[in-house]
Write a structure and sequence with these properties.
DinB family protein, DinB-like, DinB/YfiT-like, 2 strands, Four Helix Bundle (Hemerythrin (Met), subunit A), two-stranded antiparallel sheet, 51% helix, 3% strand, 5 helices
């Protein structure tokens, strides 16, 4: 039976997803590769044809500025990891996740992850939010699953806000300023 916590968490996901859809609608490759600052983290095509993110663990302090392409990879990475650890084998590693290759594919991947996650949440019961057997990334094993679900909502909203802000800056930048693309 659904309870108040599950209803709130599903509603939060709906709100975060609605914002995400708004900010990725019409996303272009040019926007994904535009560098908003020198040394911004982006996604780059390697000789093997795959797209790799600029990324190290632990993240530098302060964290670097990122491109929109990097942010779409980041959503793919953390959501893939959470889903695999909560509903899959729990064997996926962040370094194995590549960027989708273009804006259209990146948005499609994020949409796919949302559909998987929303479908999985639709099957949960209120009691399963307290279960500790669905955690392990990004929280320590033994954490209540409600923490993971709440974190997904917050992380998606944060990443959507970052993409939205970068798209606004991109649209209003000085047209005479050079575009530093990451490709």
């Amino acid at each position: 039976m659904d309870g108040p916590r599950l209803e709130v968490l599903r509603h939060q996901l709906h709100i975060a997803w609605s914002l995400t859809e708004l900010v990725v609608d019409g996303l272009t490759d040019r926007e994904c590769h535009w560098s908003p600052a020198p040394a911004a983290w982006g996604v780059r095509r390697a000789e093997d044809g795959d797209w790799y993110p600029d990324w190290v663990e632990p993240e530098p302090d302060p964290p670097p500025v990122t491109t929109i392409g990097w942010l779409t990879w980041h959503i793919d990475m953390w959501w893939s990891m959470v889903y695999d650890h909560a509903f899959g084998a729990g064997a996926l590693q962040p370094g194995k996740i590549r960027w989708a290759g273009d804006a259209t594919a990146a948005v499609a991947r994020v949409q796919q992850l949302h559909e998987q996650w929303a479908t999985a949440l639709a099957t949960l019961s209120e009691g399963e939010l307290d279960a500790a057997d669905r955690t392990g990334w990004p929280f320590p094993a033994g954490s209540p699953f409600a923490q993971v679900v709440g974190w997904v909502n917050v992380e998606l909203m944060k990443n959507a806000a970052e993409i939205g802000q970068l798209r606004r800056i991109y649209r209003h930048r000085d047209p005479a300023a050079p575009l530093e693309d990451h490709q």
